[in-house]
Amino acid sequence: MKKTDYYGFIRLEANAYSPICIAGGEEEESDHDVIRNFDGEFFLPGTSLAGAFRSYCEEMIQKQVQLQKANDCLKQNTVKWKQQDVDQLFGYAQGEDSKESSFFVFDGEIKQAKRIIRDGIALSEDKITLETKKYTYEALDAGTEIVMEWVVKATLEEKERFLEMLRMITAGIHSGRVRLGHKKMRGMGELRISEVLLCEFEKGTDHAYGWQEFSWEKALNNRKKYSVKNVTAEWQTKRWEENQIQIVVPLKLRGGLSIRQYSAKIKEKDSDQIEADFQQIERTKEKDGKTYRCAVIPGSTWNGALRHQCKKVLQELGLSSSKAEQWIQEIFGYVKETEKEAYRSQIEVKESELSQDSEPVFMVRNRINRFEGGTMDGALYTELSYFGGNTNITLFIPDKETCYWAVGLLILVLKDIANGFFAIGGQTAIGRGIFCGTVNMEKEAYYLEKLASRIEEELS
Fold first, then answer.
1. Which of 25, 293, 400, 408 could bond to 447 as cystine, CB 3.0-4.6 Å?
2. What pTM did the predictor assign?
3. Torsion of CA 15, 16, 22, 23, to 10 degrees
């Protein structure tokens, strides 16, 4: 047992930047309900948070090693942290050898939860829902307030190293690199840090033993006594080199957008809002003290569209359907339920929001009997769609040689979307989901050449 010379208490206030779904195994509200405590209140389990933080630290160590190899710096070791540093902070158990964690992560408290229910589906190439492939999941929408509390204990030798790793984790959370829960590669689970407070107790100081009676309730009521520091700006600062390729394409919606939310909407009490039978996925936002609704394009929608069009382009370039699917699985991942096998996607797709000038429009529609030309009984319904506005599609891809051909392929598909050749969402047969824009990608010719070289090699 090592003697503890230092205790650090950290409190973080954050907001959900995109929906968060950490399922608890219940299926009362949807097929995947957000975890609740005994009183039915939402929370973020400390185990889930600690697991995400540890995974991120290990991932960053691997990226440092890869970056060092890529820059031919093998003679000079530039890797700042090693796996043993992660083990010392988070603890480990290897046979009879073990160490208790020096980093304690408490359950995250949810304040002003914004609960939503979304649909998840799998579509065929003809945009028909596959049998047994539709489900619903519950999530906490963007804007939900979250409070997290951490405690770190260390020797004087470990103190700075541990604090630097915690600063790296906090910066990773704020930048969206640390994500929580379900569909992390499809834009969900992002947080933005609004405040970081630190209270320290160190051997040899006047209040070395104050940690024994410490609580954040006391500290917030008497910040001077507990020497509470606001370290938000410092802890938000990024502390690593990115080795990812980011693609951002600005798009303008030329007509309407209809990515329907099929689940029954939770009607608010005394609300005068018109209820639609089918409506575009949306969320409520605030700006300059005013609230407004904006349309949302989920990352899963972008992902499905990109995956579908990538396969189509590969087939047009000469690959067979089976070979094209094999290539697609390399970059978009797969789940084989019968073999119980899965591979994580290499492409991260962000969620998009239409700008405030996009207009919600209610329409009453009906279905016509094509033989009689009359309205069919029971086929009258209302729909909420959005028209006009701007948005961005944002992608992240690993910056490594094996993925460069995929960047070239995505450039071709994004050009299809930006030129209106490929529509997003539903009701595309009546002109919905058509965008226009310009794809300006650095080293575009290089990535397209990598794609051409791989196709040529495959077909030769």
1. 408
2. 0.83
3. 110
